[in-house]
Amino acid sequence: MKQRKIPMRKDIVTGEMQPKKSLVRVVKNKENEVSLDPTGKKPGRGAYVSINVDVARQAKAKKTFDQAFDIKIDDSFYDELIEYVDHQQARRELFDNE
């Protein structure tokens, strides 16, 4: 059977290439609204961050998405990102070990 190609994306904080499924997409739409995109299908410019709480905290400290999207993003978005990544990391630890 033919091996399937695994889509890779670059983590905007660490600069590492990782499988797309191990990353969270953050998207900026035409109205300059930045939001999480768990489905990976929202229209707009996307950037990826690893499902790792430490990396999400680094993104907040460095204001990584402010630089990537060239707009000022409120701290509440970064808090939402950290909370989402923490939840996804906990789910992955629970269900991937089976």
Provide the succession of SSEs.
EEEEEHHH
Structural class: alpha+beta
For the record, give the distance between the C-alpha atoms at the N and C termini, rounded to a whole number: 25 Å
Name the CATH superfamily assignment: YlxR-like
Q: Indicate the CATH architecture.
A: 2-Layer Sandwich
What profile does the largest beta sheet have? 3 strands, antiparallel
Pfam families: YlxR
Protein name: YlxR domain-containing protein
InterPro entries: YlxR, YlxR-like_sf, YlxR_dom
What distinguishing features does this structure have?
two-stranded antiparallel sheet, 3 helices, globular, YlxR, YlxR-like_sf, YlxR domain-containing protein, 98 residues, YlxR_dom, single chain, alpha+beta, Hypothetical Cytosolic Protein, Chain: A
How would you characterize this protein structure?
Helices cover 38% and strands 22% of the residues. The protein has 3 helices and 5 strands; from the N terminus they run βββββααα. It has one domain (8-96): YlxR-like (Hypothetical Cytosolic Protein, Chain: A), CATH 3.30.1230. A hairpin with a 6-residue loop joins β1 (8-10) and β2 (17-19). InterPro entries: YlxR, YlxR-like_sf, YlxR_dom.
Strand and helix map with partners:
Elements: E1 8-10, E2 17-19, E3 23-28, E4 34-37, E5 45-50, H1 53-62, H2 64-69, H3 75-95
Antiparallel strand pairs: 1-2, 3-4, 3-5
InterPro entries: YlxR (IPR037465), YlxR-like_sf (IPR035931), YlxR_dom (IPR007393)
Domain YlxR: 9-82
Protein name: YlxR domain-containing protein
